[in-house]
Amino acid sequence: MCDFFHLAPQIHYGRGAAAQTGPALRDLGVRQVLLVSDPGVIRAGVADPVIESIKAAGIGISEFTEIRTNPDERQVAAAVAQYRESGCDGVLGIGGGSAMDVAKSAVAVLAGGGTIEDYEDGARTVTGPYPPLVQVPTTSGTGSEVVAGAIITDSKRIFKMHIVAVPAQVAVCDPELTRTLPAVPTAASGIDALAHAIGAYVSRERQPLADANALYGIRQINRALPAAVADGTDIAAREQMMLGALTAGISMKGGGAVDHAFAHAVNALFDVHHGAGVAMFLADGMEFNLPHLAERFADIAEALDAGRDGQGGIQVVRDLVASLPLPTLADVGVTVADVPALTAKVLEDGFHLGLNPVDISESEISRILTTAAKRGATR
Protein backbone atom coordinates (compact mmCIF):
# COMPACT_ATOMS: atom_id res chain seq x y z
CA MET A 1 0.00 0.00 0.00
CA CYS A 2 1.35 3.41 -0.99
CA ASP A 3 0.73 6.47 1.24
CA PHE A 4 0.82 10.09 0.06
CA PHE A 5 2.20 13.12 1.92
CA HIS A 6 2.16 16.46 0.07
CA LEU A 7 4.74 18.98 1.28
CA ALA A 8 3.52 22.50 0.52
CA PRO A 9 3.80 25.44 0.69
CA GLN A 10 7.14 27.23 0.84
CA ILE A 11 7.30 28.63 4.39
CA HIS A 12 8.94 31.81 5.71
CA TYR A 13 8.83 31.82 9.51
CA GLY A 14 10.24 33.73 12.46
CA ARG A 15 10.31 37.31 13.69
CA GLY A 16 10.14 39.80 10.86
CA ALA A 17 8.99 37.25 8.28
CA ALA A 18 6.11 39.57 7.27
CA ALA A 19 8.58 41.56 5.19
CA GLN A 20 8.81 38.59 2.82
CA THR A 21 5.16 38.88 1.75
CA GLY A 22 5.64 41.46 -0.98
CA PRO A 23 8.68 39.74 -2.53
CA ALA A 24 6.84 36.40 -2.43
CA LEU A 25 3.86 37.84 -4.32
CA ARG A 26 6.16 39.59 -6.79
CA ASP A 27 8.08 36.36 -7.43
CA LEU A 28 4.74 34.68 -8.20
CA GLY A 29 4.06 37.33 -10.82
CA VAL A 30 1.27 39.13 -8.91
CA ARG A 31 0.59 42.75 -9.83
CA GLN A 32 -2.79 43.31 -8.13
CA VAL A 33 -3.66 41.21 -5.08
CA LEU A 34 -7.00 40.55 -3.41
CA LEU A 35 -6.24 40.90 0.30
CA VAL A 36 -8.73 38.79 2.27
CA SER A 37 -8.84 39.65 5.96
CA ASP A 38 -10.92 40.27 9.04
CA PRO A 39 -11.87 43.95 9.48
CA GLY A 40 -10.49 43.87 13.02
CA VAL A 41 -7.07 42.78 11.78
CA ILE A 42 -6.95 45.73 9.37
CA ARG A 43 -8.41 48.21 11.87
CA ALA A 44 -5.95 47.22 14.61
CA GLY A 45 -2.96 47.68 12.33
CA VAL A 46 -1.92 44.05 12.62
CA ALA A 47 -1.64 43.76 8.85
CA ASP A 48 0.41 46.95 8.45
CA PRO A 49 3.83 45.25 8.10
CA VAL A 50 2.36 42.96 5.44
CA ILE A 51 0.67 45.79 3.55
CA GLU A 52 3.86 47.89 3.67
CA SER A 53 5.81 44.97 2.22
CA ILE A 54 3.28 44.55 -0.60
CA LYS A 55 3.31 48.25 -1.48
CA ALA A 56 7.11 48.34 -1.38
CA ALA A 57 7.08 45.53 -3.95
CA GLY A 58 4.98 47.70 -6.26
CA ILE A 59 1.87 45.55 -6.01
CA GLY A 60 -1.66 47.00 -5.94
CA ILE A 61 -4.14 45.93 -3.25
CA SER A 62 -7.89 45.38 -3.27
CA GLU A 63 -9.06 44.80 0.32
CA PHE A 64 -11.86 42.32 1.02
CA THR A 65 -12.80 42.40 4.71
CA GLU A 66 -16.27 40.83 4.80
CA ILE A 67 -15.07 37.99 7.04
CA ARG A 68 -17.07 36.60 9.95
CA THR A 69 -16.16 34.13 12.70
CA ASN A 70 -17.70 31.17 10.88
CA PRO A 71 -17.58 32.23 7.19
CA ASP A 72 -20.17 30.89 4.78
CA GLU A 73 -20.60 30.51 1.03
CA ARG A 74 -21.74 34.12 0.67
CA GLN A 75 -18.36 35.51 1.77
CA VAL A 76 -16.58 33.21 -0.69
CA ALA A 77 -18.85 34.34 -3.55
CA ALA A 78 -18.32 37.99 -2.64
CA ALA A 79 -14.54 37.54 -2.57
CA VAL A 80 -14.62 35.89 -5.99
CA ALA A 81 -16.72 38.75 -7.38
CA GLN A 82 -14.38 41.41 -5.99
CA TYR A 83 -11.32 39.60 -7.38
CA ARG A 84 -12.81 39.71 -10.86
CA GLU A 85 -14.13 43.27 -10.63
CA SER A 86 -10.80 44.60 -9.31
CA GLY A 87 -8.66 42.95 -11.98
CA CYS A 88 -6.68 40.94 -9.45
CA ASP A 89 -4.18 38.25 -10.42
CA GLY A 90 -3.38 36.82 -6.98
CA VAL A 91 -4.88 36.29 -3.52
CA LEU A 92 -3.49 36.94 -0.04
CA GLY A 93 -5.17 35.62 3.09
CA ILE A 94 -4.18 37.37 6.30
CA GLY A 95 -5.77 36.65 9.66
CA GLY A 96 -7.06 33.57 11.44
CA GLY A 97 -8.45 30.44 9.85
CA SER A 98 -11.63 32.19 8.71
CA ALA A 99 -9.81 34.64 6.45
CA MET A 100 -7.37 32.06 5.14
CA ASP A 101 -10.14 29.54 4.46
CA VAL A 102 -12.13 32.11 2.47
CA ALA A 103 -8.97 33.04 0.54
CA LYS A 104 -8.19 29.48 -0.53
CA SER A 105 -11.86 28.73 -1.22
CA ALA A 106 -12.11 31.78 -3.48
CA VAL A 107 -9.03 30.62 -5.36
CA ALA A 108 -10.59 27.17 -5.86
CA VAL A 109 -13.75 28.70 -7.36
CA LEU A 110 -11.74 31.10 -9.51
CA ALA A 111 -9.78 28.18 -10.94
CA GLY A 112 -12.43 25.47 -11.11
CA GLY A 113 -15.67 27.40 -11.57
CA GLY A 114 -19.05 26.74 -9.96
CA THR A 115 -19.72 27.67 -6.34
CA ILE A 116 -17.88 26.66 -3.20
CA GLU A 117 -20.60 24.14 -2.32
CA ASP A 118 -19.46 22.12 -5.36
CA TYR A 119 -16.13 21.44 -3.64
CA GLU A 120 -17.50 19.85 -0.47
CA ASP A 121 -15.54 16.71 0.44
CA GLY A 122 -13.76 16.82 -2.93
CA ALA A 123 -16.90 16.38 -5.05
CA ARG A 124 -15.30 18.82 -7.50
CA THR A 125 -11.55 19.25 -7.84
CA VAL A 126 -9.26 21.94 -9.19
CA THR A 127 -7.26 20.19 -11.88
CA GLY A 128 -5.77 23.13 -13.75
CA PRO A 129 -3.59 26.11 -12.76
CA TYR A 130 -4.96 28.46 -10.13
CA PRO A 131 -4.18 32.07 -9.13
CA PRO A 132 -1.16 32.59 -6.87
CA LEU A 133 -2.07 32.26 -3.19
CA VAL A 134 -0.05 33.48 -0.19
CA GLN A 135 -1.27 32.95 3.39
CA VAL A 136 -0.24 34.97 6.46
CA PRO A 137 -1.60 33.79 9.85
CA THR A 138 -2.15 36.35 12.61
CA THR A 139 -3.08 33.70 15.18
CA SER A 140 -1.25 30.56 16.23
CA GLY A 141 -4.04 28.09 15.75
CA THR A 142 -5.66 26.74 12.64
CA GLY A 143 -2.63 25.78 10.55
CA SER A 144 -4.77 26.79 7.56
CA GLU A 145 -1.72 28.34 5.92
CA VAL A 146 -0.15 24.92 5.27
CA VAL A 147 -3.15 22.77 4.29
CA ALA A 148 -5.41 22.73 1.24
CA GLY A 149 -8.62 22.00 3.13
CA ALA A 150 -11.01 24.66 4.40
CA ILE A 151 -14.12 24.84 6.56
CA ILE A 152 -16.96 26.94 5.13
CA THR A 153 -20.49 27.07 6.55
CA ASP A 154 -23.41 26.29 4.26
CA SER A 155 -25.89 28.90 5.48
CA LYS A 156 -28.84 27.03 4.00
CA ARG A 157 -28.11 23.76 5.80
CA ILE A 158 -26.50 25.44 8.84
CA PHE A 159 -23.68 22.98 8.31
CA LYS A 160 -19.90 23.36 8.30
CA MET A 161 -18.65 21.93 5.02
CA HIS A 162 -15.23 20.37 4.59
CA ILE A 163 -13.91 21.97 1.43
CA VAL A 164 -11.13 20.43 -0.64
CA ALA A 165 -9.67 23.70 -1.91
CA VAL A 166 -6.07 24.46 -2.89
CA PRO A 167 -2.76 24.84 -1.00
CA ALA A 168 -0.94 28.14 -0.84
CA GLN A 169 2.28 28.50 -2.76
CA VAL A 170 3.80 30.50 0.12
CA ALA A 171 3.06 30.80 3.84
CA VAL A 172 4.50 33.68 5.88
CA CYS A 173 4.49 32.95 9.64
CA ASP A 174 5.60 35.92 11.73
CA PRO A 175 5.01 35.73 15.51
CA GLU A 176 5.24 39.53 15.69
CA LEU A 177 1.80 39.66 14.05
CA THR A 178 0.26 37.82 17.03
CA ARG A 179 1.54 40.12 19.79
CA THR A 180 -1.70 42.12 20.09
CA LEU A 181 -4.06 39.16 19.84
CA PRO A 182 -6.23 39.25 23.01
CA ALA A 183 -6.09 36.49 25.60
CA VAL A 184 -9.38 34.76 24.67
CA PRO A 185 -8.66 34.22 20.95
CA THR A 186 -5.05 33.37 21.84
CA ALA A 187 -6.36 30.61 24.11
CA ALA A 188 -9.01 29.39 21.66
CA SER A 189 -6.69 29.25 18.67
CA GLY A 190 -3.97 27.61 20.76
CA ILE A 191 -6.25 24.79 21.89
CA ASP A 192 -7.39 24.33 18.29
CA ALA A 193 -3.74 23.84 17.28
CA LEU A 194 -3.22 21.38 20.13
CA ALA A 195 -6.27 19.42 18.97
CA HIS A 196 -4.88 19.29 15.43
CA ALA A 197 -1.65 17.74 16.63
CA ILE A 198 -3.33 15.26 18.98
CA GLY A 199 -5.92 14.35 16.37
CA ALA A 200 -3.32 13.82 13.67
CA TYR A 201 -1.33 11.49 15.93
CA VAL A 202 -4.29 9.19 16.61
CA SER A 203 -6.26 9.61 13.38
CA ARG A 204 -7.38 6.72 11.23
CA GLU A 205 -5.25 8.34 8.51
CA ARG A 206 -2.18 8.89 10.71
CA GLN A 207 1.17 8.35 9.07
CA PRO A 208 4.83 8.37 10.11
CA LEU A 209 5.75 11.53 8.21
CA ALA A 210 3.19 13.47 10.25
CA ASP A 211 3.96 11.91 13.65
CA ALA A 212 7.11 13.89 14.48
CA ASN A 213 5.42 17.19 13.65
CA ALA A 214 2.42 16.24 15.78
CA LEU A 215 4.45 15.40 18.86
CA TYR A 216 6.60 18.52 18.48
CA GLY A 217 3.47 20.64 18.18
CA ILE A 218 1.90 19.08 21.29
CA ARG A 219 5.04 19.74 23.33
CA GLN A 220 5.48 23.33 22.15
CA ILE A 221 1.85 24.36 22.59
CA ASN A 222 1.43 22.81 26.04
CA ARG A 223 4.51 24.64 27.32
CA ALA A 224 4.00 28.00 25.60
CA LEU A 225 0.25 28.60 25.55
CA PRO A 226 -0.20 29.64 29.22
CA ALA A 227 2.59 32.20 28.89
CA ALA A 228 1.23 33.58 25.59
CA VAL A 229 -2.23 33.97 27.14
CA ALA A 230 -0.88 35.58 30.32
CA ASP A 231 1.31 38.09 28.47
CA GLY A 232 0.72 38.66 24.78
CA THR A 233 3.91 40.70 24.51
CA ASP A 234 6.03 37.68 25.51
CA ILE A 235 7.55 37.28 22.05
CA ALA A 236 9.41 34.08 23.00
CA ALA A 237 6.10 32.43 23.93
CA ARG A 238 4.46 33.83 20.79
CA GLU A 239 7.27 32.42 18.66
CA GLN A 240 6.96 28.99 20.28
CA MET A 241 3.21 29.06 19.70
CA MET A 242 3.66 30.00 16.04
CA LEU A 243 6.03 27.07 15.56
CA GLY A 244 3.72 24.76 17.49
CA ALA A 245 0.68 25.72 15.42
CA LEU A 246 2.67 25.51 12.19
CA THR A 247 3.94 22.00 12.90
CA ALA A 248 0.48 20.97 14.10
CA GLY A 249 -0.90 22.22 10.80
CA ILE A 250 1.65 20.19 8.86
CA SER A 251 0.75 17.13 10.94
CA MET A 252 -2.92 17.49 9.91
CA LYS A 253 -1.91 15.89 6.62
CA GLY A 254 -2.16 12.79 8.79
CA GLY A 255 -5.83 13.39 9.58
CA GLY A 256 -7.78 14.38 12.71
CA ALA A 257 -10.17 13.13 15.38
CA VAL A 258 -13.72 13.30 16.69
CA ASP A 259 -13.49 16.49 18.77
CA HIS A 260 -13.80 18.61 15.62
CA ALA A 261 -17.12 17.01 14.69
CA PHE A 262 -18.49 17.99 18.11
CA ALA A 263 -17.01 21.48 17.86
CA HIS A 264 -18.43 22.08 14.40
CA ALA A 265 -21.91 21.21 15.65
CA VAL A 266 -21.68 23.84 18.38
CA ASN A 267 -20.04 26.33 16.01
CA ALA A 268 -22.86 25.91 13.48
CA LEU A 269 -25.79 26.10 15.91
CA PHE A 270 -24.41 28.63 18.42
CA ASP A 271 -21.92 30.61 16.28
CA VAL A 272 -19.02 30.36 18.73
CA HIS A 273 -15.31 30.66 17.92
CA HIS A 274 -14.12 27.41 16.38
CA GLY A 275 -11.27 26.96 18.86
CA ALA A 276 -13.58 27.57 21.82
CA GLY A 277 -15.82 24.78 20.52
CA VAL A 278 -12.85 22.46 20.17
CA ALA A 279 -11.76 23.21 23.74
CA MET A 280 -15.14 22.04 25.01
CA PHE A 281 -14.60 18.53 23.62
CA LEU A 282 -10.87 17.86 23.16
CA ALA A 283 -10.36 15.94 26.40
CA ASP A 284 -13.69 14.08 25.97
CA GLY A 285 -12.60 12.92 22.52
CA MET A 286 -9.27 11.76 23.92
CA GLU A 287 -11.08 9.89 26.70
CA PHE A 288 -13.26 8.09 24.16
CA ASN A 289 -10.28 7.05 22.03
CA LEU A 290 -7.85 6.14 24.82
CA PRO A 291 -8.83 2.44 25.23
CA HIS A 292 -8.25 1.81 21.54
CA LEU A 293 -4.80 3.43 21.18
CA ALA A 294 -3.12 3.15 24.56
CA GLU A 295 0.44 3.30 23.19
CA ARG A 296 -0.27 6.35 21.06
CA PHE A 297 -1.82 8.15 24.01
CA ALA A 298 1.21 7.23 26.11
CA ASP A 299 3.34 9.07 23.52
CA ILE A 300 0.99 12.06 23.72
CA ALA A 301 1.17 12.03 27.53
CA GLU A 302 4.97 12.07 27.33
CA ALA A 303 4.82 15.10 25.02
CA LEU A 304 2.52 16.73 27.59
CA ASP A 305 5.10 16.14 30.35
CA ALA A 306 2.84 13.55 32.03
CA GLY A 307 5.16 10.55 31.83
CA ARG A 308 3.60 7.80 29.76
CA ASP A 309 0.27 7.83 31.57
CA GLY A 310 -2.42 8.24 28.92
CA GLN A 311 -5.06 9.17 31.48
CA GLY A 312 -2.62 11.61 33.02
CA GLY A 313 -2.13 13.25 29.63
CA ILE A 314 -5.88 13.72 29.28
CA GLN A 315 -5.98 15.35 32.71
CA VAL A 316 -3.22 17.75 31.64
CA VAL A 317 -5.43 18.81 28.73
CA ARG A 318 -8.48 19.19 30.99
CA ASP A 319 -6.49 21.30 33.44
CA LEU A 320 -5.00 23.41 30.66
CA VAL A 321 -8.43 24.19 29.16
CA ALA A 322 -9.86 24.95 32.62
CA SER A 323 -7.01 27.40 33.29
CA LEU A 324 -7.72 29.43 30.17
CA PRO A 325 -10.33 32.19 29.66
CA LEU A 326 -12.58 30.02 27.51
CA PRO A 327 -16.38 29.57 27.65
CA THR A 328 -18.14 26.37 28.64
CA LEU A 329 -21.15 24.96 26.83
CA ALA A 330 -23.36 26.64 29.43
CA ASP A 331 -21.67 29.99 28.81
CA VAL A 332 -22.70 29.91 25.14
CA GLY A 333 -26.25 28.83 25.98
CA VAL A 334 -26.08 25.05 25.46
CA THR A 335 -28.22 22.94 27.81
CA VAL A 336 -29.08 19.25 27.97
CA ALA A 337 -32.22 20.11 26.00
CA ASP A 338 -29.99 20.94 23.01
CA VAL A 339 -28.32 17.50 22.97
CA PRO A 340 -30.65 15.90 20.36
CA ALA A 341 -30.11 18.74 17.86
CA LEU A 342 -26.37 18.74 18.48
CA THR A 343 -26.20 14.96 18.16
CA ALA A 344 -27.92 15.13 14.79
CA LYS A 345 -25.49 17.82 13.64
CA VAL A 346 -22.46 15.78 14.78
CA LEU A 347 -23.74 12.77 12.82
CA GLU A 348 -23.87 14.90 9.66
CA ASP A 349 -20.11 15.46 9.85
CA GLY A 350 -19.06 12.27 8.13
CA PHE A 351 -15.67 13.67 7.19
CA HIS A 352 -14.38 14.26 10.73
CA LEU A 353 -16.14 11.23 12.18
CA GLY A 354 -14.44 9.18 9.47
CA LEU A 355 -11.01 10.44 10.56
CA ASN A 356 -11.48 9.25 14.14
CA PRO A 357 -9.55 6.05 14.86
CA VAL A 358 -12.70 4.17 15.88
CA ASP A 359 -16.38 4.50 15.05
CA ILE A 360 -18.63 6.37 17.45
CA SER A 361 -22.34 5.59 17.78
CA GLU A 362 -25.25 7.97 18.09
CA SER A 363 -25.77 6.94 21.72
CA GLU A 364 -22.11 7.57 22.53
CA ILE A 365 -22.27 11.02 20.92
CA SER A 366 -25.38 11.84 22.95
CA ARG A 367 -23.72 10.60 26.15
CA ILE A 368 -20.61 12.75 25.61
CA LEU A 369 -22.69 15.82 24.82
CA THR A 370 -24.93 15.32 27.84
CA THR A 371 -21.95 14.90 30.18
CA ALA A 372 -20.24 17.96 28.74
CA ALA A 373 -23.41 20.08 29.04
CA LYS A 374 -23.89 19.09 32.68
CA ARG A 375 -20.23 19.67 33.47
CA GLY A 376 -20.31 23.12 31.90
CA ALA A 377 -23.35 24.11 33.92
CA THR A 378 -21.56 23.35 37.21
CA ARG A 379 -18.17 24.86 36.41
Explain this structure to me?
By secondary structure, this protein is an alpha/beta fold. It has two domains: 169 residues, Rossmann fold (3-Layer(aba) Sandwich); 196 residues, Dehydroquinate synthase-like, alpha domain (Up-down Bundle), CATH 1.20.1090. Helices cover 51% and strands 11% of the residues. Strand 6 and strand 7 form a beta hairpin. The longest helix has 23 residues. The mean pLDDT is 94.
CATH architecture of the largest domain: Up-down Bundle
What's the total count of β strands? 8
Query: What top-tier CATH class of the largest domain fits best?
Result: Mainly Alpha
How much of the residues is beta strand, in percent?
5-15%
How many helix segments? 15
Q: Main sheet, how many strands, which sense, barrel?
A: 6 strands, parallel
N-C termini distance: 48 Å
The string of secondary-structure elements, in order, is: EHEHHEHEHEEEEHHHHHHHHHH
Strand order of the largest sheet: 1-8-5-4-2-3
Q: What fold name stands as the CATH topology of the largest domain?
A: Dehydroquinate synthase-like, alpha domain
Q: How many domain units? A: 2
Radius of gyration: 19 Å
Give the rounded overall mean pLDDT.
Answer: 94
Class by SSE composition = alpha/beta
Q: Low-confidence parts lasting 5 or more residues at pLDDT below 50? A: none
Going by CATH, the homologous superfamily of the largest domain would be Dehydroquinate synthase-like - alpha domain
Overall geometric form: globular
> Fraction of residues in helices?
40-55%
